[in-house]
Design brief:
By secondary structure, this protein is of the alpha+beta class. The chain is built from 17 helices and 15 strands. The termini are far apart.
Length: 399
């Protein structure tokens, strides 16, 4: 009896037909060396399989790397310091593969083996932080770091109902309680919190010291939090209230009023946020804003520093001091302290902060405070004789 001829192949059968490793077939498909499945989901016709060159398929695959190695490479690509952004984990590589950004060559679906060249290409993409936020959910500890707050503050955010899990994962802690279900949260939802909750004093939340009472602790979960006035919508979008009134008049899809009065209408917060995102009125922050400053020390030696999450506080009194605070690395904080403590002093030759044009600061600068917050970040405060208010106020102000 004649043996029947197979007319279609799944990935394992196709690799077997060509006598190449399964990983090689997967990479050939993922890299476009062979056409995509044409006989159904994950199934190729005999014509496509037999047209593939086994030697080319085999040669295209260099040794796959594990998810852990890939995660380290992507973390390195994010740069240092990882301010308010967790390290990329092996599980995150699994999420990127399921999103189609990496080809799973082997291993299990949660921690796949992937192609090193494809990882390197992904690492070079300028939108890597955006892709991670879009496709990789975060556990509670990671979410706290992404937001830049203590874990206790994150737990309070969850209790207030400001974020909801988008999934969960089971983790076996073995000696520490066995298998535990851990909720996962959208990184985009986490990053948006300071934007869509502008009435919260996030500066105080970020700077909360270990063991201190959180500014969030006094808040209770309430439906009131989920309704916003036009003024708060304006604060989210950083525009005037009149602009929001105009949006409401011009756009028929602007969220419907759910309460309040004709003069002071109220809107559902989640609907407003969705509308603002859809119309590009707000965007998901990929990182904290940063200030850069060039400090001129003894012998006119210059050093450049970066402060994340800057706050520029300008004195009203000419006899007072201007202050700039922000998150720093330990190394930069030590160098700043050394530069500004010398007998000849130091000055800021150039300051670039969100909301201002580059400024030159007159007078001697000094470090007046450095402390480690409850979330582990190091915050440094610099001060110099007052003199920026008139200059900075003409161009906006950081804060």
């Amino acid at each position: 009896m004649a043996r029947s001829v197979r007319e279609s192949y799944d990935e394992s059968q196709a690799a077997g037909r060509l006598r190449v490793p399964l990983a090689a077939w997967r990479w050939a498909v993922g890299s476009g060396l062979v056409p995509p499945a044409d006989a159904g989901p994950g199934v190729w016709s005999r014509a496509v399989v037999e047209a593939a060159d086994p030697e080319q398929v085999r040669a295209a695959l260099r040794g796959p790397i594990g998810a852990g190695v890939a995660a380290d490479r992507l973390t390195e690509a994010l740069g240092e310091p990882l301010r308010c952004r967790p390290r990329v984990t092996a599980a995150a590589v699994g999420h990127l593969a399921r999103a189609g950004l990496l080809v799973r060559l082997g291993g299990d679906t949660e921690f796949p083996d992937v192609h090193p060249d494809q990882v390197n290409t992904l690492a070079r993409r300028r939108d890597l932080p955006v892709l991670l936020d879009r496709h990789v959910p975060l556990g509670p500890d990671q979410a706290a770091r992404r937001l830049g707050v203590r874990r206790t503050d994150w737990d309070q955010v969850v209790r207030l109902g400001w974020v909801s899990p988008v999934g969960s994962v089971e983790i076996d802690y073995k000696r520490h309680g066995g298998v535990t279900t851990v909720p996962l949260y959208s990184a985009e939802d986490v990053a948006l919190l300071p934007v869509v909750r502008p009435s919260v004093d996030w500066r105080a939340v970020y700077a909360a010291r270990a063991g201190s009472r959180s500014p969030l602790a006094a808040l209770d979960a309430s439906p009131v939090w989920e309704r916003v006035l036009l003024a708060e919508v304006a604060r989210m979008a950083r525009v005037g209230r009149a602009a929001v009134v105009n949006w409401r008049r011009r756009h028929t899809d602007f969220p419907a009023q759910v309460g309040g009065t004709d003069v002071h209408p109220q809107f559902d917060r989640s609907a407003v946020v969705a509308w603002l995102l859809a119309h590009d009125k707000i965007e998901v922050p990929v990182a904290m804003p940063a200030a850069s400053l060039v400090v001129v020390g003894a012998g006119r030696r210059t050093s450049r520093f970066r402060l994340d999450g800057p706050w520029l506080d300008l004195a009203d009194d000419a006899e007072g001091v201007d202050e700039l605070s922000g998150w720093s690395t330990d190394e930069d904080a030590d160098e700043l302290a050394a530069l500004t403590s010398g007998e000849s002093g130091a000055s800021v030759g150039r300051l670039t902060a969100p909301g201002t044009v580059p400024l030159t600061v007159s007078g001697q600068v000094r470090v007046i405070e450095r402390f480690r917050s409850g979330s582990g970040g190091l915050r440094v405060t610099l001060a110099w004789p007052a003199g920026l208010r008139d200059t900075a106020s003409r161009h906006g102000r950081s804060g």
